[in-house]
């Protein structure tokens, strides 16, 4: 590929080269999303069950999902720091490398039947989620003005394939693992290990030139210098907060992302329990969750196009409206109201998608190029922390009160956020 000159005017020839690099970048990120999505879905679907078998405790089994979410949160800033210092390829390689190591530790833990070691492995396993979230931002580095949301949305959409296919591969992977002489229950995590290894190879080999480094090299000469290495993680966090103080639009985007994710995780995590109380079989609950996943991902290209066409804030407000409708529909449905809950969960996924795509595009555009990795890393950190907190709070609310009260709490939260976005719109 012809070398693109540093700080060059974006002539038609150079612009064409950048567009070609961006197309390659989107293809590479999408392939990595598909393969890593399989690994995440397989491991996540099987982890709680395996921890329960190893520990003999249903309560301890719940720590499996918490460990993965915690890992994604803990690795968000290191991934951002690595990207800020050496480019997106390095940051994503760190995230997927940690996930690969986590799978290896998990396989060993199951073999020696140690649930604490398995939980430690699942923390590193969360690196795959950190990488998946960071990939969406990698798609925006070279996006032309007015196209970042739709480019980002295509990478989000690629997650659909892995998320849908992954859980269905867990049982075949376990059977294959046993036939190959692996310990029982290790097959799914061996498959996850393979998936993460492929994703890592795709990123390391295919993400060239690095989109963030290329974007920095062609930035106008008048733009702030971007060659200074990123500081340590604490400095990365400080840099992110400083950048946010100077970018009100980024603050709005960050809040919208966090609220959307909290609302989605809160309702989604307790819906299987609610339906189980009504006697719904597992296959019915599975269909409801599949509709929810479809709502999260299938419409993402349309949402990305809409965010570019009518603006980020209108789509964020639309997302809050969809989340409100989801909370009302699901929250007012009884344990036997499967159809109503299904409609609510589909809207819940679509509202989350609006918040993630429009919010991520708005966040990226609102801060200078040199500060984007730090701010994006902070966004992913808060997103995971809010999701984990929302899941815990939802369990407490449903356990002490009811599923309908949870719907009311979520409805109030998204209504306040939607009103705030309307009053603070740019």
UniProtKB/TrEMBL annotation:
GO terms for cellular component: plasma membrane. It is found in: Cell membrane. It is a multi-pass membrane protein. It comes from the Bacteria. Keywords: Membrane, Transmembrane, Transmembrane helix. GO terms for molecular function: transmembrane transporter activity. InterPro entries: MFS, MFS_dom, MFS_trans_sf. The chain crosses the membrane at residues 26-52, 58-80, 92-112, 118-139, 151-169, 189-207, 249-271, 283-303, 315-333, 345-369, 381-399, 405-423. The keyword Ribosomal protein does not apply. Residues 248-426 form the Major facilitator superfamily (MFS) profile domain. PANTHER family: MAJOR FACILITATOR SUPERFAMILY PROTEIN, MFS PERMEASE. This is Predicted arabinose efflux permease, MFS family.
């Amino acid at each position: 590929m012809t070398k693109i000159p540093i700080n060059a005017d974006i002539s038609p020839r150079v612009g064409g080269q950048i567009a070609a690099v961006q197309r390659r970048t989107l293809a590479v990120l999408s392939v990595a999303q598909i393969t890593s999505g399989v690994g995440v879905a397989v491991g996540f679907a099987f982890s709680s069950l395996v921890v329960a078998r190893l520990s003999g405790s249903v309560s301890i089994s719940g720590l499996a999902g918490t460990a993965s979410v915690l890992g994604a949160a803990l690795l968000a800033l290191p991934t951002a720091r690595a990207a800020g210092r050496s480019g997106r390829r390095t940051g994503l390689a760190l995230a997927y490398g940690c996930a690969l190591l986590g799978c290896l530790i998990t396989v060993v833990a199951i073999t020696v039947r140690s649930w604490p070691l398995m939980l430690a492995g699942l923390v590193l396993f969360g690196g795959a989620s950190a990488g998946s979230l960071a990939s969406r931002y990698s798609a925006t580095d070279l996006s032309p003005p007015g196209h970042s949301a739709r480019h980002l949305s295509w990478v989000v959409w690629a997650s659909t394939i892995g998320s849908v296919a992954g859980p269905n591969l867990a049982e075949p992977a376990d059977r294959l693992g046993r036939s190959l002489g692996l310990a029982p229950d290790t097959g799914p995590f061996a498959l996850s290990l393979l998936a993460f290894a492929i994703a890592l190879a795709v990123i390391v080999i295919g993400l060239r030139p690095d989109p963030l480094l290329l974007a920095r090299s062609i930035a106008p000469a008048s733009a702030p210098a971007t060659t200074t290495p990123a500081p340590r993680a604490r400095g990365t966090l400080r840099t992110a907060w400083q950048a946010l103080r100077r970018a009100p639009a980024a603050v709005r985007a960050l809040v919208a992302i966090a609220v959307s994710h909290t609302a989605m995780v809160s309702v989604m995590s307790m819906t299987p329990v609610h339906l189980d109380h009504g006697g719904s079989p597992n296959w019915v609950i599975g269909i409801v969750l599949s509709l929810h996943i479809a709502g999260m991902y299938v419409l993402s290209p349309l949402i990305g196009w809409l965010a570019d066409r009518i603006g980020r804030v209108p789509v964020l407000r639309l997302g809050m409206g969809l989340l409100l409708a989801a909370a009302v529909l699901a929250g007012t449905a009884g344990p036997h109201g499967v159809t109503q809950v299904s409609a609510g969960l589909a809207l819940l996924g679509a509202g989350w998608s609006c918040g993630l795509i429009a919010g991520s595009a708005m966040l990226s555009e609102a801060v200078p190029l040199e500060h984007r990795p730090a701010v994006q890393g902070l966004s992913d950190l808060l997103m995971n922390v809010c999701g984990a907190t929302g899941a815990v709070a939802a369990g407490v609310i449903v356990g002490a009160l009811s599923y309908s009260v949870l719907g009311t709490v979520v409805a109030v939260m998204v209504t306040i956020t939607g009103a705030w976005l309307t009053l603070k719109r740019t």
